[in-house]
Design a protein that fits this description.
170 residues, 4 strands, single chain, alpha+beta, Butyryl-CoA Dehydrogenase, subunit A, domain 3, 4-stranded antiparallel β-sheet
Amino acid sequence: MQEKNLTYLRLFVVLLPLLLFLISLTQVAFTNEGTDEIAVNQSYLVLLGGPFIILGGATFEWLTWMANPLALCAIILFLTTTRAKKLSSPTFIPNDWIFILSIGATVTAWQFSLWKEVMKSESGSMGDILSLNAGYWLWAISILLLALGIIVYFIFLRKFLANKAKTLKD
């Protein structure tokens, strides 16, 4: 693989999950029993309200929302670590935090699919999750693709650097 192809792969690793994430914001995330009726939770509202739900006592829901900043930190670290200047160094070592953050975001996002109920009001009452909708699945898949893309990128990068070192020896 050439260095130019690595650049394209690097962009693809970030842009595809971001595109899926943006599409997920236009969809319904999940449906649950509300206080008086069935509540339909739009993805963009879940994203915007996420940092504040802990104030209402929804600690576990807030921890699930934390997949977003974990993924964002993984993207930033991935982009800053894999700049062309750093890759040209023969002693390049990927930052382990990229893997930890992306896999942590993936586990955090996907664990919500195992939930049976969520907090439906600040009083602490719980409502059954009736369905996980397209918004949730697109969001979770976008984070999974980010983690898988980062892993694939570093596999190709390792091969590229090994070939580069081999040609420098010869």
